[in-house]
Amino acid sequence: MDLDTVLMPNGDFVFRDIGGETILVPVRAGVSELDSLFALNEVGAVVWKGVEARSSVQEIVSVVRAEFEIEPAVAEKDVLEFLDVLVERNLIRHAEV
In the chain, where are the structural domains located? Predict the structure, then answer.
């Protein structure tokens, strides 16, 4: 995945703030299964919002750097690693162009 990549949610999860925690909740089968929930920290929530907005990876990295005052190389590495996890878990996919 490179910095020009644009990703989008796969449609099976919705972003919810529940009791002060940000959680991705399945909208189909599996709602009752706890391992189908995906909790996000503050940075993860910012990344998810960028994915929902169909921002490029570079744009997401820029927002994370600005909001959390993270060094550019660290922000890029962390965002790319987190996006890889989301892709692996089938929560996001490449956006259609």
Answer: 41-91
